[in-house]
Amino acid sequence: AAAAASSSIKQVKLERESELRIEVANDTPLRLRLLNGTAEIFGTELPPEMWLNFPPRLKFAVFTWYGATIEMDGATETDYTADETPMVSYVNVHAVLDGRRKLAKASSSSAADSTQQGPRVIVVGPTDSGKSTLCRMLLSWAAKGAWKPTFVDLDIGQGSITSPGCIAATPIELPIDPVEGISLDMPLVYFYGHTTPSQNVDLYKALVKELAQILEKQFTGNAESRASGMVINTMGWIEGVGYELLLHAIDTFNANVILVLGQEKLFSMLRDVLRSKPNVDVVKLQKSGGVVSRNAKFRQKSRSYKIREYFYGIANDLSPHSNIANFSDLLIYRVGGGPQAPRSALPIGADPVANPLRVTPVNIDRDLLHVVLAVSYAQEPDQIVSSNVAGFIYITDIDLQRRKVTYLSPTAGDLPSKYLVMGTLTWLET
Ligand code: ATP
């Protein structure tokens, strides 16, 4: 009886079309299971009766279409039930997208029009409007229906595919695991190296273009992916250059469904500029009241966790290797911000601005300490901007006397390529 009294187990009964919103405690995990009925977490159904472990700080909702009872064990920062959600409108969007996938599939097998594409959805809106969460639901619902949509994440600040500072794409074949997140077989990753696009707007655009071109090529040879389409997540920066970058992404990926979350002004601006394109639908969607706002400090922290997760795994289940290399073994480059051309070398009247896509070698010194570097697939330095990356290393020590660098790498042995790319991305291992 004493054990039962001190136990933190509680049951929550959810009515149809309502959700249990949870913020897991800061230091302790939470266990949760579905006792009866049916429920999903951001589009992925919960298995009956099986305990799931949620790590500290995770924020999520358990939603039910027809009613469910949930059992929870552990501390939470908050947990409450909400019966007002935008889920019906979200699933209606999914139904429309599904119809378009079916059309695309039917027309590609009839060969009447082999260029038929599935929907290319782009989700836009201010920070903390629930963009990543909506992407996740649309992807999981599609995967549940046996489609294989491609998830494209253009958010270099809070991306969900790999380390911050990157844009990336990966096919989604199964509903996304509520705890583990997106499973990564072979994501296609481009390294930008900064967590804000204003550092080098031209580079950001160039990488978006590279990623889009590669996906376009993959789609040509893969009717299943083509019919399934894409779901593209974007950054919360929607003013000025941020807005320009949204238009650039819409154009570059040939997006034909624009989902605007939580901002009337952005919706009407996009509807007006895209009015001339009859094949593009701009749809306004309500933001969920469950979306948790995160301040700059929280965002900084979650970037840091994301890098940690890359090396150590989400549950500390990976063991990265510490390696030592000679200065001469590492060929490090940076993009943009290189030395300016002398005025005498330029046409009359031209200003000596640095080429934003110029690749320059970096000398190894103490500044490299705590830097996260990408391992590029480039064969030559001048291919660095157009090449995707294999992964990342983290510099843990620089010995200037012995000219040795110590770095953390997810695997032992040689790096898959000798060209490393540096930006302003750093990490303090804690
Ligand atoms: P960003 O500004 O980084 O682009 P975003 O618009 O993509 O943010 P999300 O990451 O989708 O926003 O949501 C912010 C946080 O709110 C996330 O931690 C997410 O898990 C949480 N969240 C979203 N919807 C709900 C909900 N209905 N109930 C509880 N938590 C939620």
What distinguishing features does this structure have?
23 strands, 8 helices, 25% helix, binds adenosine-5'-triphosphate, 7-stranded mixed beta sheet
Task: Walk me through this protein's architecture.
InterPro entries: Clp1 (IPR028606), Clp1/Grc3 (IPR045116), Clp1_C (IPR010655), Clp1_C_sf (IPR038238), Clp1_N (IPR032324), Clp1_N_sf (IPR038239), CLP1_P (IPR032319), P-loop_NTPase (IPR027417). Residues 318-429 form the Clp1 C-terminal domain. It is found in: Nucleus. By secondary structure, the chain is of the alpha+beta class. It contains eight helices and 23 strands. The protein has helices at residues 2-6, 87-110, 131-144, 201-220, 223-228, 241-252, 264-273, 296-312; strands at residues 9-14, 18-24, 30-37, 40-41, 44-45, 52-54, 59-64, 68-73, 76-82, 120-124, 150-153, 166-171, 188-191, 230-233, 257-261, 281-285, 321-326, 331-335, 359-361, 372-376, 389-399, 404-409, 419-422. The strands form four sheets. The chain has a seven-stranded mixed sheet, with helices on both faces. A seven-stranded mixed sheet has the order 17-22-21-20-23-18-19, with no helix packed on it. Strand 15, helix 7 (264-273) and strand 16 (281-285) form a beta-alpha-beta unit. The longest helix is centred in the first third of the chain and has 24 residues, at 87-110. It is globular. The protein binds adenosine-5'-triphosphate. The site of adenosine-5'-triphosphate has 19 residues, from strand 2, strand 7 and helix 3.
